[in-house]
């Protein structure tokens, strides 16, 4: 890895599976090198997959197969800006339909426990509208949604 800043994501032996899914699902994503442990470690043996280099939407990541000690939480999430409903649906459904879990306000969690915000640009524009009443209507509409419905957000924004 050549990046000065890389996200290190902890997995319980499934870093390569996760990286492969991300590379298949998101543009500008790929699996790089897989590094094997040079010796035994608390959750594995010499020769096991220890780390996986990958990128998600151009962001360099390192998947560490560290074992079951630590779990992902909503305190960290990938926020993905989508351009239209088709892209929003495709990404949301890919995550949820692959063993993930739907949540609220555009959030979902993948099967490895990582949180994702699938956020249409239209939503960001609506809730930051200089017309505070329009922004509030869009925000209130968002608060009732799981996956974001762009048409409903735009309708709420218009009043």
User: Mean pLDDT, rounded to whole units?
Assistant: 97
Largest sheet: 4 strands, mixed
User: Can you count the helices?
Assistant: 5
Number of strands: 8
CATH topology of the largest domain: 2,3-Dihydroxybiphenyl 1,2-Dioxygenase, domain 1
Structural class, judged by helices and strands? alpha/beta
The CATH architecture designation of the largest domain is Roll
Number of domains: 2
Pfam families: 3-dmu-9_3-mt
Organism: Pseudoxanthomonas gei
InterPro entries: 3_dmu_93_MTrfase, Glyas_Bleomycin-R_OHBP_Dase, PhnB-like
Protein name: VOC family protein
Protein architecture, described:
- The model has no long low-confidence stretch (mean pLDDT 97).
- This protein has two domains: 59 residues, 2,3-Dihydroxybiphenyl 1,2-Dioxygenase, domain 1; 82 residues, Roll (2,3-Dihydroxybiphenyl 1,2-Dioxygenase, domain 1).
- Helix 3 runs parallel beside helix 5 and helix 4 runs antiparallel to helix 5.
- The strands form two sheets. The chain has a four-stranded mixed beta sheet. A four-stranded mixed beta sheet has the order 5-8-7-6.
- It has 159 residues and is α/β, with parallel strands linked by helices.
- Strand 6 and strand 7 form a beta hairpin.
- It starts with 6 loop residues before the first strand and ends with a helix.
């Amino acid at each position: 890895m050549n990046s000065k800043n890389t996200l290190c994501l902890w997995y319980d032996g499934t870093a390569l599976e996760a990286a492969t899914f991300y590379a298949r699902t998101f543009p500008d994503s790929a699996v790089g090198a897989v590094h094997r442990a040079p010796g035994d470690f608390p959750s594995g043996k010499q020769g096991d997959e220890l780390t996986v280099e990958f990128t998600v939407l151009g962001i360099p990541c390192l998947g560490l197969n560290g074992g079951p000690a630590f779990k992902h939480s909503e305190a960290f999430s990938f926020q993905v800006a989508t351009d239209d409903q088709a892209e929003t649906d495709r990404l949301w459904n890919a995550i949820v339909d692959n063993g993930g879990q739907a949540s609220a306000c555009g959030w979902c969690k993948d099967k490895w426990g990582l949180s994702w915000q699938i956020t249409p640009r239209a939503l960001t524009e609506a809730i930051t509208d200089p017309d505070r009443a329009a922004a509030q209507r869009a925000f209130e509409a968002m608060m009732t949604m799981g996956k974001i419905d762009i048409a409903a957000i735009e309708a709420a924004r218009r009043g």
